[in-house]
Design goal:
mainly alpha, two-stranded parallel ribbon, 2 strands, 40% helix
């Protein structure tokens, strides 16, 4: 039996639920994933902190790290597993390109806000790279291209490329 991770048609008839679902959330990998996590027990004492971060995904942990470096005491809580919701669904991809967002932001929020969004995502990528190097984290971090594709509407992709370039994000159209 062959394993198909993604079919260009978006239709799965072999292992997994490929249409828009992270590999790590598919039932075939659930047992493997569950063996890595244990739920934290509730705190049995009062906790005092400068900052409480709700959400222990990649963004929450990055924010916590930045605040600790600035001398703040930080507590990070999550109702789920650390890295177990949004981060898990991204397969730990750190990207400034999240679907067709830049053209939409330019139209609805204006260039200044769209640029702020784009550059904050770019800074986060840089910060992750710095933290990985600083703490010698062995996580197989690689900088790779990110792709959005379409089977039907090439014009949308071309608009997104132009919007990304306008906001300072390196982007190109390819077939």
């Amino acid at each position: 039996m062959s394993t198909i991770i993604w079919k260009s048609t978006g239709v799965a008839n072999e292992l997994g639920e490929e249409k828009g679902k992270s590999l790590w959330t598919q039932k075939e990998y659930k047992d493997i994933e569950e063996s890595y996590y244990k739920r934290a027990l509730p705190a049995k004492e009062n906790i005092s902190t400068d900052v409480l971060i709700i959400g222990a995904g990649m963004a929450g942990v990055l924010i916590a790290q930045a605040l600790v470096e600035r001398g703040k005491t930080v507590v990070v809580i999550d109702k789920n597993k650390t890295g177990g919701v949004i981060t898990r669904n991204t397969t730990a991809k750190v990207s400034s390109q999240h679907d067709l967002i830049f053209d939409k932001l330019l139209k609805t929020k204006g260039e200044a806000r769209a640029r702020e969004y784009a550059m904050s995502n770019q800074r986060a990528i840089t910060k992750y790279k710095e933290l990985i190097k600083k703490h010698n984290i062995n996580c197989d971090f690689e900088v790779l291209p990110s792709y959005i594709y379409t089977l039907t509407d090439e014009a949308k992709i071309k608009k997104e490329v132009e919007a990304a370039k306008r906001l300072g994000i390196p982007a190109s159209f390819t077939r």
